[in-house]
Design a protein that fits this description.
heterodimer, A: six-stranded mixed β-barrel, two-stranded antiparallel sheet, 17% strand, B: alpha/beta, five-stranded parallel β-sheet, globular
């Protein structure tokens, strides 16, 4: 019989107590798992989607809204900006590249983004099927969007006005699927990409009363925002100020806004972390009480083990092994619960299709969970194990 | 074999216990009697190398215990001493079989299924192997505890108050089992008791069928 097997049997000789201790410990660990998972996935999403974008230029309003809507595609944009103004930015000496982004429609919840091929190049997207668009009303679907929509090459569909469900359909302007991207893990996976001209065409067709009206609209074309890359890092000092003071647009730096967002989230994270800490502390106390009671209840049994030749360290190891089992079971349950919480959050807030936050993700940071579980359970078991180590056989003999 | 000479034990902040000299040949039976608190348990603890004597010489199963260090004492005890405690202390969390396997674990030996079954068979409780101690009668539990005590074929069996709270018939059976198991293994048997009935139960003429000889029965009163 192995020490671990014996400890397992002793542990489950008090099934209710053992189950409650495992549950209590696992709730604390689940909270930690949840925080680690969400933090990891948020950080990965931000790193992935914000990489290489120095500043986003769009309509005045909330800069964070501009970043969330234009880069991460999880919010509505503050408005549109004139195409001419964006074209002017391309000529600015500090600007290396400008990628236009036009939003306005969706197809079954997946955003239709009017842009240029440079947008795909920026995220190093590769085609899994078909080709890129070479004319308006042709679309290339991101891998997730294509899979969820069951899209195939040559398929035609009409977009719906707005960025969420419930808008009216642009029935006369059908898109044709000409390409499907390979999964890239970036925001492109969940977008439907087309030429900027497609978005203008759909809305001009829909709203123009006659040809004169259409011509007037063509002259006043707009985009939602532009993703700008600097020629030099020094541009960060002056370019946003130039845009904010000299144009009708605003410039928002993704790094700054995301840092602000994380600071705002930080308060909630701290509260959750403190809550998880309290849970873990309570669980540690509960494990301590359970093992301490076990030593008191089994004093005779433990003394008998000494009488049968078990060294004190072996008797103490039996208690520590019970703690190891508690820790391992709680770690397994805590990890699964944490994954479940993250999946539920992703599903409930629809982040599983936007920021790609969900469950069943196993970043290396999660290794801290079993380590924490074992640390807490073994820490709580130290005093009881010392009690087991010092158990008196003479007391057993004297019938006390 | 147990041999003591000038054996004394001083409790910290307690009394000094002085024990009479005794020499118990291998395979003999020692009836250790005396009222509660007279030092029977302390003498058993000394013989089992659980505590070191304050003074005197002590040799058990050919092993001088005075110089034995703690770790070596544990290993020696596992090999040499079988113990039947008063309250039996069968673990309620384990089956009968597992209680015996636990004894092998405590002694640092690998689990030996055939030996466990043989010990249970000898004591007539092989059919109870998978039961939990809570499902056993008092007599069955005592047989299982005795099977655990003799499992590792010790050279000395220490029985602490084996008849306490047993009726006459059960007490006779318990003593008979102990004598039988000890004689079968050629082990020295020490019965520590304050139960006056045991002296009569252990008398050689009541155990003719076992074959105990009058010269092999020693008594020590504390």
């Amino acid at each position: 019989m192995k020490t671990l097997a014996l400890a397992w049997r002793y542990l489950w000789s008090r099934p209710l107590g053992a189950a409650l201790n495992v549950l209590l410990l696992s709730l604390g660990l689940a909270s930690i798992t949840f925080l680690l998972l969400v933090g990891h996935q948020l950080s990965r999403a931000f790193d992935r989607d914000l990489a290489g974008i120095d500043v986003v230029v769009g309509a005045k309003g909330s800069p964070m809204q501009l970043i969330l809507s234009g880069v991460l595609h999880i919010d509505v944009p503050p408005g549109n900006v004139p195409l001419q103004a964006v074209r002017a930015l391309e000529k600015h000496p500090m600007v290396a590249s400008v990628i236009p982004i036009s939003l306005g429609d969706n197809f079954r919840g997946y955003r239709i983004v009017g842009t240029s091929h440079a947008y795909l190049t920026h995220y190093e997207a590769t085609l899994a099927q078909g080709r890129l668009w070479d004319a308006p009303m042709q679309v290339v679907l991101g891998a997730t969007a294509a899979a969820k929509l069951g899209a195939t090459l040559g398929q035609r569909f009409v977009g719906t006005h707005g960025l969420g469900a419930g808008g009216h359909a642009h029935g006369d302007s059908a898109y044709t699927v000409v390409g499907i991207l390979a999964p890239s893990g970036s925001v492109l996976d969940r977008l439907i990409l087309t030429d900027s001209a497609s978005v203008w065409k759909v809305h001009e067709d829909f709203t123009a009363l006659d040809d004169d009206d259409r011509k007037a609209m063509e002259e006043d074309r707009e985009v939602t925002m532009a993703l700008v890359k600097y020629k030099t890092p020094m541009a960060a000092l002056s370019f946003p100020r130039y845009v904010n003071t000299s144009t009708e647009m605003q410039a928002a730096a993704p790094a700054l806004e995301i840092s602000r967002l994380l600071n705002m989230l930080g308060l909630g994270t701290d509260v959750l972390r403190a809550f998880a800490g309290v849970l873990l502390l309570t669980a540690a106390l509960s494990v301590f009480i359970a093992l301490w009671s076990a030593v008191r209840e089994r004093r005779g049994d433990l003394a008998l083990l000494r009488m049968l030749g078990a060294p004190p360290a072996k008797v103490a190891a039996l208690l520590l092994c019970e703690a190891v089992w508690l820790g391992l079971l709680a770690a397994a349950l805590g990890l699964l619960l944490g994954q479940g919480f993250a999946a539920a959050l992703g599903w409930f807030l629809k982040l599983d299709t936007t920021l790609l936050i969900g469950g069943m993700v196993w970043p290396s940071e999660l290794a801290v969970v079993p380590a924490l579980a074992l640390g807490v359970s073994l820490g709580a078991a130290l005093l009881p194990a010392l009690g087991a180590y010092r158990v008196s056989v003479l007391e057993l003999l004297q019938g006390r | 074999m147990i041999r003591t000479q000038g054996l004394r034990y001083q409790y910290p902040n307690g009394p000094l216990l002085a024990f009479p000299d005794v020499e118990v040949p291998q395979g003999a039976v020692l009836l250790l009697s005396g009222p509660s608190g007279c030092g029977k348990s302390t003498w058993l603890a000394l013989v089992a190398a659980l505590v070191a004597p304050t003074a005197g010489a002590l040799v058990v199963a050919d092993q001088p215990l005075n110089a034995l260090k703690s770790v070596a004492a544990d290993a020696w005890r596992a090999r040499a001493i079988g113990f039947l405690p008063q309250r039996l202390h069968l673990s309620a969390a384990l089956s009968v079989y597992q209680n015996l396997a636990m004894a092998q674990w405590a002694a640092g030996q690998p689990e030996d299924t055939s030996r466990i079954h043989a010990a249970l068979q000898t004591l007539g409780v092989a059919d109870l192997a998978q039961r939990k101690p809570g499902e056993l009668s008092g007599g069955q539990a005592q047989r299982v505890a005795l099977a655990r005590a003799v499992l590792l074929q010790p050279r000395v069996i220490l029985a602490d108050e084996p008849t306490a709270s047993l009726d006459d018939a059960s007490a006779a059976q318990a003593v008979g089992l102990l004598l039988s198991a000890a004689l079968q293994q050629g082990a020295t048997l020490v019965i520590a008791t304050h139960d006056a009935r045991v002296a009569g139960l252990i008398a050689p003429d009541t155990h003719d069928q076992i074959g105990i000889q009058p010269s092999w029965l020693l008594r020590m009163s504390l």
